[in-house]
Amino acid sequence: MSGAVQQAPEVVGGPPGQPSRGAWRALREAGALLARQREATVFVVDVLLIIYFGFISTVGRQAFFTHTNLITVTQLAAPIIILALGEVMLLICGEIDLSVGFIYQLAPFIMYFLITDYHVPGLLAILIALLSGPVIGWFNGFLTVALGLPSFIATLGTGFIINGIVLTTSGAQQQDIPPEVKGIGHWIGQYAWAEITFAVILTAIFHILLTRTRWGLHTVATGGNQLGAREAGVSVARIKYGNFMLTGFLGSLVGLQIAFQISIIDPTSGGYIPMFYAVAAAVIGGTAMLGGSGTIIGAFFGGILLAVLTNGFSVVGISAYPLPIIFGGAILLAMIANVQLTRLRDRGKA
Amino acid sequence: MTEQAQQDPAVPPSADDDVLRVEHISKKYGAVTALVDVDMHLRRGEVLGLIGDNGAGKSTLIKIICGFQPPTSGRIFMDGQEITFKSVDHARSLGIDVVYQDLALVNQLTVYENMFLNREPVRWPLLRKKKMRKEAQEHLDSMGIKTLKSVDLQVASLSGGQRQSIAVARSVFSNAKILLLDEPLAAMGVKEGAMILDLVRDLKAQGMAIIIIAHNYGQVFPVVDRVNLLRGGKITFDKYSQETSVEELTEMVVAEYRKALEERHRAAS
Predict the structure, then answer these.
(1) Tell me: the pLDDT tens digits for A12-33?
(2) Is residue A82 part of a domain?
(3) Which residue of A has its CA nearest to B160?
(4) Angle at alpha carbon of residue A171, lines to A166 and A176, rounded to 5°
(5) What is the DSSP letter of B12?
(6) Cα separations in angstroms, B139 against B13, B28, B146, B158, B192
(7) Does A213 contact chain B (CB < 8 Å)?
(8) A108 and which of A207, A259, A283, B96 could share a cystine (Cβ 3.0–4.6 Å)?
């Protein structure tokens, strides 16, 4: 980068209207830096989007940076981010969880039925609801590791089953939050900043988990070279079970948060859409689907990107219909970057 | 004994102690017999070349020695004591380690992370990365592996020879006493190959016992003390390298190849 700075005078001296060599080099170096640091790329896109919606667009200037709207953005981003944390860990170790949105759907109903039908104390009911995620995660792990199903299919199946259980037991009826848990509910999801606070703290924890602990190292090893990891004595099965269980936990947490946030336990919340947003955030953030590589911070910024886009469109008053085109484009661009950069790196080695 | 070996590497180490000995090893997979009554031994500080065609039983023998699978019958001795390997981990804990060319390392991890894989020092809950870097670097230095710019490099960015030396270094690092190198020079240039052979010589000088499994025995012949030829599940040839030559080995392998061809012709006609 210092080279680019030294080249700056050339830009000034160059013939006007023609891109000088120095400018090109600066651009190329900036590009290379962004390419190396995938999180930085997404971060820059986030900032540009926020600048556009918040300062440039005429409507957005008045509406984007209002207190209410900022809360809306964070409440859009937080669930995507939290679910993405689990998906990143799973994608790195070579698996995926399609059922997490249904774990999200199920958890608040478990809490509700425990309190109303079984008179379990509120706090305990919340705890059991939170544990339902890891239990389902364990079952996903069992299907994948012990029975050898591809996790894509295994979790597709469990997802449908959980959905069916929720619809059957609830009679597809919405329920109110039981009064016993309204107090603690504020802290979990009802206070304006509760969800994003959880998201930020969990991001920090998962980032450390991935980059600075044995668990993270073994997760990368499992996805990068499963045979080699097993050869070295890494318990590949334990890593996979564990990451399914972590993802399940995050799913049930998000389910409770959303229920408290909207003050209703809704059998149609959750499902495949939030899960796909989470996977999209992970991919946009730089996590490859091939296993062995991925970033937590990238997924965080990927989640922000999806939320800011969704919110920005509605704030600025652009029709929301073309939004999926942009999402799809972002996913493809991110994936092309993932694949091509890996190819470039491998070619550079040879 | 070690002194003698260092003074004159051409003189084979004395025969009084086998670090590893297998007796009457047979292995059957259902109706298929992979190994028939194999006897093999390996001495301290010795480099044994194990050669043989595809399907001769090399990998079966290696899998038995490294604890991956038990033999159908036969006995295994380490330092004179009979032993039954329960698993790869068990064999490794006793000091036997296999280095596979492509299997060994995780491309997405750095050199030092690979060196410590599954033995990472931890100050709970965090990895002691500084300690890992430092010790990995020291260990590579002590082994004379100097082609790496940094232990922070991702393994994906290394050459085949560098990867192989890291894989070997990792085994040594984990206190292996017996190394099994599976095709250590496969897909490697001359310069890279020479680097690995130097590494083998260094390890041998330090008293490591090594079995090299190689197709291209011409390439590894200069570092090998003794050659065993495996053919049809049996060891049909066992000589010190001073008593044989690459030419003799070639003749033998070619003769076998002819015999096999003739047999096939006879069977066809």
Answers:
(1) 334 444 556 777 787 777 766 6
(2) yes
(3) A350
(4) 85
(5) P
(6) 26, 41, 11, 18, 20
(7) yes
(8) A259
Question: Domain B15-241 classified CATH 3.40.50.300?
Answer: yes
| DSSP element (H, E) containing B226 | strand B226-231
Q: What is the pLDDT of residue A19?
A: 53
Where in the sequence is the domain holding A288, given as residue range(s)?
Answer: 40-338
Q: Is the CB of B89 less than 8 angstroms away from the CB of A221? A: no
Closest Cα of chain A to B156: distance in Å? 7
**Inter-chain CB proximity B106 and A225 less than 8 Å:** yes
Give A289 or B224, the one with higher predicted confidence.
B224
B179-197 in b/e form (b: 16+ CB < 10 A) is bbbbbbbeebeeebbebbb
Asked whether the predicted pLDDT for residue A3 surpasses 60, the reply is: no
Give the contacts of B68 (CB within 8 A, at least 6 positions apart).
Answer: B88
**What CA–CA distance (Å, rounded) separates B45 from B23?**
20
B81-83 and B73-78 beta bridge pairing = antiparallel
Mapped onto helix, strand or coil, the DSSP state of residue B71 is coil
Confidence at residue A41, expressed as pLDDT on a 0 to 100 scale = 83
Query: What's the rounded Cα separation, in Å, for the pair A31 and B246?
Result: 54
Chain A residues within 8 A of B156 when measuring between CB atoms = 345-346, 349
Task: Count structural domains, chain A.
Answer: 1
The CATH number of the domain where A207 resides is what? 1.10.3470
> Are residues B107 and A212, on separate chains, in Cβ contact within 8 Å?
no
A98-126 residue pLDDT tens: 999 999 999 999 999 999 999 999 999 99
Judge whether residue A200 has pLDDT over 80. yes
Residue found by looking up tokens 């030829």 in the block: B229
- The CA dihedral of B77, B78, B80, B86, to the nearest 10 degrees, is -50
Sequence-distant (6+) residues with CB within 8 A of A123 are: A181, A184
Give chain B positions within 8 Å (CB) of A227. 103
Which chain A residue shows the shortest CA-CA distance from B156? Answer: A346
pLDDT at B73 > cutoff 50: yes
Q: How many CB atoms lie within 10 A of CB B130?
A: 9
Furthest CA-CA distance within chain B? 71
The ipTM of this complex is 0.82
Q: What is the pLDDT of residues B84-143, one digit of tens each?
A: 999 888 998 899 998 886 677 999 999 999 999 998 999 999 999 999 999 999 999 988
In chain B, which residues touch A (CB < 8 A)?
88-89, 92, 100, 103-109, 113, 117-118, 120, 122, 125-127, 129, 156-159
Contact A217 B120 (CB under 8 A): yes
Q: How far is B242 from B12, CA to CA, in rounded Å? A: 9
Q: Rounded to an integer, what distance in angstroms lies between the CA atom of residue A20 and that of residue A27?
A: 11
Domain chopping of chain B, boundaries: 15-241
Whether the link from the prior residue into A16 is cis, omega within 30° of 0, is no
A277: in domain? yes
- Type of residue at A183: G
User: pTM value?
Assistant: 0.85
A6 part of a folded domain: no
Q: What's the confidence (pLDDT) of residue B14?
A: 46
